[in-house]
User: What shape does this take?
Amino acid sequence: MDPKVAIEDQFSKLHPSFPESIRIGIVGGGPSGLSAAYALARLGKVYDLGGQVLAASSAPIIFHLAKETGSALEELDSHKLAIINPSNGEYQDIKVADDYVSVMSLTLEIQEKVKNSGRIGVHGVSDIAPELAPEYLECHGLKSVPKSVAYGYTASGYGFVQDMPYAYLHEFTRTSMAGKIRRFRDGYTSLWQKIAQSLPLKLCCNTEVLTLRRNSDGVTVNVKNLNGVETLVFDKIIISGSFPLKYGRTYRSLPSTCTDCEPEVMDTSDLEKELFSKVETNDYYTTVLKINGLDHFPVGFYYFNEYMEDPSTIGHPVAIQKFYADTNIFLLWSYGNSTDIKGPAVTKLAIKTVESMGGEVQKVVLQRRFKYFPHVSSQAMKDGFYEKLESELQGSRNTYYVGGLMAFELTERNSSYAMALICKNFANNSDLPMFPYTKSLFPLRTECQEMDPKELGELPGVHFPNLPTLDGYLRQWGTHPITQDRTLYTWINEEGAPVGQRTYAEQHLNASCIAHKLLTSQKPVIKPGDKVLLVYVPGLDFIDAFFGCLRARVIPVPVLPPDPMQRSGQALTKIENIAKSCSIVAILSTVAYHSAVRAGTLKNFISLTGKSGKSSARWPNLPWLHTDTWVKNSKNLALNGLDDQCEEAQPGDICFLQFTSGSTGDAKGVMITHGGLIHNVKLMRSRYRSTSRTVLVSWLPQYHDMGLIGGLFTSLVSGGSAILFSPMTFIKKPLLWLETMSKYQATHSAGPNFAFELVIRRLESDGLAENCVFVSCAFGERKPIIVDWQGKVCCGYTQQENEDIDIRIVDPETCEELQDDGKEGEIWFSSPSAGIGYWGREELSQNTFKNKLRNHPGRYYTKTGDLGRIIDGKLFITGRIKDLIIVAGRNIYSADVEKTVETSSELLRPGCCAVIGVPEEILSAKGISMPDGSDQVGLVVIAEVRDGKPVGKDVIEKIRTRVVEEHGVGVASVKLVKPRTISKTTSGKIKRFECIKQFTDESLNLVPQGPQTLLKKTLLRSYTTGTCGEGNTPRPRLVRRTLAASKRISKNDIVEFLKGLVSEQTGIPINNISVTDNLTSYGIDSIGVVKATQKLSDFLGTPVAAIDVFTATNILELANFSEDLLSKIQPQPSSNPTNVPEAETFSTELVEEVSTSKRFGIHLLQVIALVYISIMLASPAYISINAFLSFIPSFSISVDGIPWSNYLVSLALAPIAWILCIAVTCICISLFGNSFLRPNYALSSEISLYSMDFVKWWALYKVQEISSKVLAVHLRGTVFLKYWFEMLGARIGSSVLLDTVDITDPSLVSIGDEAVIAEGVLVQSHEVKSRILSLRAIKIGKSSSIGPYAVIQKGSVIEEGAEVQALQKVEGGQPVLKSAKLNNVDKNAEVPSFYHFIGIYLVSFLSSLAAAITYFMYIWFSKKSPSFLHFSFVCICGAFHWIPFTIIAYATMFSDVPSNPITFAISFAGAYLLHGLVLIALSSAFSNLLIMSGIKQNQYRTWLKQQVTISCHLRFAKLLSGTGAFCIYLRLLGAKIGKHCSIRAINPISKPELMTIGDGVHLGDFSKIITGFYSSNGYTSGKVEVRHNSVVGSQSLILPGSIVQKNVILGALSVAPMNSILQEGGVYIGSQSQPVIRNTMNNSDKNIEEMGTECKENANNLATTLHKKVSDKVTLTRTWYQSFSVLFIQPLMQTFLPYFVVGLSVFAPLDLIVHQKNATNLSLHWFFPMVWVLSGTLAALACVIAKRVLVGKNKSGEKVPIWSTRITMDSTWQAVRTLVGDFFMDMTNGSYFLVLYMKLMGADVETDHEVYVDSNGALLNPEMVKIERGGCVGKEALLFGHIYEGEEGGMVKFGDIKIGEDGFVGSRAVAMPGVQLENEGNLGALSLAMKEEIIRSR
Assistant: This one.
């Protein structure tokens, strides 16, 4: 057997060489005998054997048997291998690996020769290495046998190496090189016992073979067993016993040991005597001793080299083994000679050896003797022993030998040889078998559950009547006193709860009611015999309508209900065709469904997508009748006498029409009669033994025959009951099927194959893999599942002349029955259950349903169109008759050839190939020559190529060659067509006859001539020089083709998506999934796709009817349906791309050249998108401000008479207007953002940056991001934030706590009940990489918890109850573990929503109050009179605060602007500065008041204080970053801040009073201090202390309870875990619970040495970078003038100057809009967007100028003191940049304009190429940044061109950052100075690139 080929595959290609009647016996039940029996069973045989089981080692064959029998294996622990001195017990290790390596090349060389020889067993190597081992190795360059090999060989019982031919050592060596050793958990014997018990044969245990006599006719074996002596007769015999070896001798013994005196068992021939007399066997002993004194020996094998190398010492132990460390049991291995050295002598020598080693033998536990390893001498091998054995002895006298002599004495060799012998002598590998045969599908699975179906019996007083119609049974049971009140049908929902029921009486009355309404209908008039469509979603309404039709004798036509909201689709097209073909008079349905159809029709009527070139299917213009309304109204009416109108139907009358799928032509309606239907139901009742006690469970589709007849009618006719539920409910919850059967004690249920597979898979996924589902097959006779030689599964057993159903195999050409067993032909059947014809197609009906056979007069047979055969009364279906092509007299199956074609080249699309037979005259007319021997028909191949794949002549030649090689026929023509153009049915099957027509008419959509170019985004080899120097070779601008760019590509994407779903469910790699006609033959079904129906709806971006998906049977059917669904909304495909010379590529990804005009067009679209974003953000503010102005007079009147009442009203209403703005903005984005901008997310799961879809997505992404950052941020921690994101499209469960607004693409986010998402979490469903936007949904499970500032990336699935730690990232498919409970947890009750509303109001009110105070301070200083209008403006500005909203308020409320822009800018900046200072004072006072207050709800107090802090921080305090004023601000809030601290852009602190910062502490940019956060355990809080001179790196996180001791360095993107202590002088890197640590105090490394090289380098790098002299002196000490500057001058500059710059930029646009307001009557809101964009652009240009003026250009490597004027100017500019970003530029992130902005500020960015930057963090030091083409920077990523170095006084060092071509920096990643991303380098999300680190491509 070939070890590289699966055993299953090797047997699948073999056929038996002998008929099934042959009798074969096997003597000996060891591994060889049992393996031979197994191989025979695989070939379909059943034989006798007997004997005892032995075992040896493990290998591929054994592993296969173990897997098939379910035998558990376990890996052995590593053992010591050593040489031991028997005189003193000293041992030394042996170099095993080196020894085996020394012979490895020789072993492989020999094995290659054996493989090519075609021989099996030792025979294969006997001619190659027959020489003695030392002699052979010396000839091959080795002085001796390596010790490990020699000692291992001898110790294993194979004799001394100097005596053995090297052929045996080779067999031993190649097994010993196998690797890890495993053993069977229950011992080797357990394996053979399981095989023996499982094989389908008679096992003769405890049986002694007395005699064995052979002749030319057969073999006679006399055996003795418990029943006495018995004679067995066989045709062939296989001997694996040892009795033929009696003629041999014992190894190293005297000749007198020959056993000729033993009685003859087998009549031995002279040849057998000659050969077996040359065989020697080893006398081998294992002795188990209990020894004291050797406890110091480790577990292992110890070789006695003194006895190993000297055969004269035979009897002494050659090895000793200690198995277990905790025992004193040892095993010794020894040889005897069967004469003077036997058991006692061996034991004595073993004890003597132990004593000489210092041990004491307490007990001899056990000794066993083996006649082991039959072998021959070197000379015998050279004389051709094995050649004679294999060529002359094997098979002579009907005898075959297996065992260690032939195979080498190893279990693996024995098994392998035995199976190979069977395959060689009992089988053949020809294409066709010598005779038809069958075999058991599971040869080792013969045991089945022994049980007889329980006889249910009838209910008391119930007797089954023999009635002619279905309606007759409904009348019978509906009026029967015992059954009428019993429940007939129960409909359950997804939770398993009943939602509808029908008793027999109710069903009877409902049928009568509907029948009455039908027959008395006037519009339309309906008569018996008329046909009506039944269009119902699954439910009891369908059943009512169906039985009503039967009672009225109206013919129902059940159809698939289309999605009512879709314009067309397969189901609607089919309904339209059915209505036309059979004169439908009305449509029966429900009010709800009809209403949905009307709404869908209206939607499609007004939809712009209706302007498509294709015609759409329409609902038939027929009246709709609502049967559910009839039934509902009938409950109030008397229905007595209704049945009198309805006559009883006759058996020959048509009952209903069942329409086919149309896979081989147009859909045809099969006429089912009442008699045929009731016969079929009665037959099933009889077969399945149904009675009135039957409880049936069914989820099968009601419009399908399996669900309709098998699910609904069987229970009714039997008088039983049925529990029903929707197919989609089953798909979503497969285990509900089992639960329902258990709950209702079901007696019957049925389902297709995939349903059982789905249940099993779900059990496995739930950890219930050991459970099994017992399935009773329809055979019902405990017979095994049978397959034929082609692997076709038996479909059932046939009975000749059966009155119920008679099946015949007929020649389709002659229409004559094929009498021979196993002959293939068309399957015909005759049964009263058959249909009587196709409606309206008499000729076709006659040809299909009215066929006769000469030998069976009086019977009509129905043609099935299926090919099949009958073998021994077993029916096999082999294919379709229409798939058969006869070429040169040979039957060629299209499906078989198509499989060959599809696998011939990877450029062809699987499942998209048609092989057709074309007449010679057509081929000749086209100038196509016929292949030799093709006769009158030639094969033509039509195959689709993959999207964009280049196609050359070599592909066509491969197809021709493969077809000839595998099928022996030539191909006349090969036509390669474009993707998705081959003709298929609605179910995804190839329309071969349509392909013939297209080939004849030359209407195939052929691929264009000439190569198509696939170009990659980066290095292209020069067409002239063959080289590519960086920046020298001209390179076209490239971008991947948008998946949504054409319908063709969209469908391919759909197919790939569906394949991914199938892969997800089945575990099959995507690359191995083929889309084929016959899913069963490829092992692929639709279950994975069907199970993911909801995902498919999200993927398409439009609802998909659940029932459409359920009925799909394969990937192509779903893809076709999806394509039809999307055909009206996708743009038409463009013309073929221009051919470009083929270039050397480094990727196969599809890209295309981008023209300058297209680039310009995309940039223009981004400008329009910016305006549209501005409209969506400005309009709500405008509406809210106008509402505020409208309400003020009304409220002022109500409080008239109160001093300053109107001022108070204005102050009170301003926060209300702000809250209104939040609500209106959310609604506006939902209506005008999601509806118009949201792409079909997963349909466009990969979108080019240069596409309309990207611009739409980007606009929606930005408007959601900006609105969340400005408005929704104030809803954090409240239920209103949940509502906000739900309005934006997220699916969020109940009791979810959201404390973050960083949720991108909400429509792709699903959050389960009671989940908690903490502060700063980024939930990002997209990623832009290599110029492609990719989108994948995120699911956060129920009760899960996401820690602060974690990043959840696209495609992530966080399971229920899982917890993501702080500052961790989760990628798609990454497991998330549950964390421990937290300390310091506040779990107060949930705060009522009203309190949250009041809190939101108070936050805004504080800002309005601060503005009011500011205004009155201005009035007081300026000595001016107050103005109510001005006051109202100030209040509204204070509430809204955002500069764009301030502009809108000003333009709305005033008609003039100051004439001097400088004056305006100074006023603007001064107002914001003063407001900020007052706001800080009010916020600190309010926070301290909350701390001292007695508010009982501690959680609410914490939340409210946090909201006040957030508001103050975002509106003003963040501009103070890095100044002494910021420290003062924190102190006002309650924090304890030391002297000379540098606190950069940190987060808002929720509980500042819990924070303590020591002297000289540096908190890096964007570092986070968390004093409290939300989790699934509640609100967790704790003190945070950072002591003197410590440094906290950028983006690092300090969690509650942490203490950072003095002189600690916490690296960038690192975490100080909760309740942790970072030891003094330590360097901590990492975001895990135990970061890398280096101690700078004493040079000791706590756990850095346990880390990898990269971690060590990072730690050392950071420690070196931030090294400082450890002392108590404050590192960041400032001079008095530096302190003055930091405390006063720098804060003033960082607040006043940014607002001044923005005010100056706003002036001109604001003046323009006010002027237009005064000069025209146009509404202001039309101007706001343009003014915003214009002023924002001016502000950006002003920021660029400020950069050049304030900062200039920093140089790489330059160092600057942290308190220097340059750093002060840089911080001032950073504040300007921050404010400009807040005002406008943040809105441009991810667009071309941000890249241009960077370029203007000094960044080296390729603006002519595709660069994507979605973070203002790339602008920290723009002149230090270089981004090459294709570079991508993710959301909130930080590119630090500077780094803080902790020298005395504090220094800042600058360094360049380079992102190479297609380099990628993920979201929130941090790149430090000197970092270089090589071309295609990848710095993942939340990753850190240390100083001067090089990120290489993967």
Q: What stands out?
A: The two ends are 40 Å apart (CA to CA). The CA atoms of residues 1881 and 1898 lie 7 Å apart. The chain has 53 helices and 91 strands. The mean pLDDT is 79.
